Amino acid sequence: MKSHTEYLWFNVKAKREFINITDKVEDALAKSGVQEGMALVSAMHITAGVYVNDAESGLIQDIEDWLQGLAPEGPDYRHHRTGEVNGDAHLKSLLIHHQVIVPITEGRLDLGPWQQVYYAEFDGRRRKRAIIKIMGE
Ligand code: ZN
C-alpha cells in the first residue's frame, strides 16, 4: 500500500472563513501516485472543520448563518471560565465535523458532480493546519 501525507497551513484574517481546498487535495493525490484508495482530509484543530458540500456562495452564507444560530458567537459559554473566548468555535467544529474521507478511483477524487472539499475556520487570525493522508495502491 502506498501512502502520502501533506499538511495545509492556513492563517485567515477573519474569525470565520470557508476555504475550498479541493484543488489542494487533487494536487496531493497527483503526487501520491495512488490510483485506487482513499484520501483522508482532517482539520488538526478543535475550532475548525472539514466538510464536503457545494461551492456556492449563497449556500456558504446559509451554512454560516445556520452555525451562528446553533452556536452563536459571544454568549458566556462555560468554556470561557478558562479564560478562552472561543466556545462557539468548538461547537461549530462539532456541527461541521473535523474530517472527511474521499474515495479515489482511477487516480482521481471520485466526488459527485457538485461535491467540493472545504476547510472551515471558526477561530482564525492564527496559523492552523489540516492534514491530507492519501492511502491506496
Ligand atoms: Zn477553546
> End-to-end span in angstroms?
5 Å
- How many strands appear in the DSSP assignment? 8
What is the correct CATH architecture?
Sandwich
Which oligomeric form is depicted? single chain
Q: Please give the share of residues in helix.
A: 25-40%
Secondary-structure content class: alpha+beta
- In the predicted model, the low-confidence regions spanning at least 5 consecutive residues are none
CATH superfamily: YjbQ-like
Radius of gyration (CA) equals 16 Å
What can you tell me about this protein's structure?
- This protein is an alpha+beta fold.
- The protein has one domain: Jelly Rolls, CATH 2.60.120.460.
- The protein contains 3 helices and 8 strands.
- Strands 1-8-3-5-6 form a 5-stranded antiparallel sheet, with helices on one face. The protein has a 3-stranded antiparallel sheet with strand order 2-7-4.
- A hairpin with a 2-residue loop joins strand 5 and strand 6 (108-109).
- The longest helix has 14 residues, at 57-70.
- Zinc ion is lined by residues 79, 84, 86, 90.
